């Protein structure tokens, strides 16, 4: 999460009221779920997979996950494209 995109995502999540520890949990879960999804199925419908994972593993309500997914998806797209390229 040390990239500019990661910091931006963390800042936006904090702006939504998430405390730093929760921000880290959300980003770690989002990265793990996104990577697993891309490996299994490609990048299509990543947002649905993220919402399910955040709700199921972190106990977040569906409304909260929508806002989080909107914030972290651009970060994840950049992060994963760099991971796949390397």
Please provide a written account of the structure.
The chain is mostly helical and 86 residues long. It has one domain (4-85). 83% of the residues lie in helices and 0% in strands. The protein is built from four helices and no strands. The chain has helices at residues 4-15, 20-41, 46-58, 62-85. The chain is globular and about 35 Å long. The model has no long low-confidence stretch (mean pLDDT 84).
Number of domains: 1
Biggest sheet statistics:
none
Average pLDDT, all residues:
84
Strand coverage percent? under 5%
**Annotation field: number of helices:** 4
Low-confidence stretches: none
Radius of gyration: 12 Å
Q: Categorize the overall geometry.
A: globular
Beta strands, count: 0
Distance between the termini: 17 Å
Helix percentage range: over 70%
Helix and strand sequence: HHHH
- Secondary-structure content class: mainly alpha
Which descriptors apply to this entry?
mainly alpha; 86 residues; globular
Brief write-up:
The chain has helices at 4-15, 20-41, 46-58, 62-85.
Topology:
Layout: H1 4-15, H2 20-41, H3 46-58, H4 62-85
């Amino acid at each position: 999460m040390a990239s500019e995109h990661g910091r931006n995502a963390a800042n936006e999540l904090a702006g939504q009221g998430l405390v730093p520890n929760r921000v880290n949990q959300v980003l770690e879960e989002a990265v793990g779920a996104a990577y697993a999804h891309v490996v299994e199925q490609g990048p299509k419908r990543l947002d649905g997979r993220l919402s399910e994972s955040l709700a199921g593993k972190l106990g977040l309500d569906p409304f909260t996950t929508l806002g989080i997914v909107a914030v972290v998806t651009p970060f994840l797209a950049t992060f994963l494209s760099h991971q796949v390229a390397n």
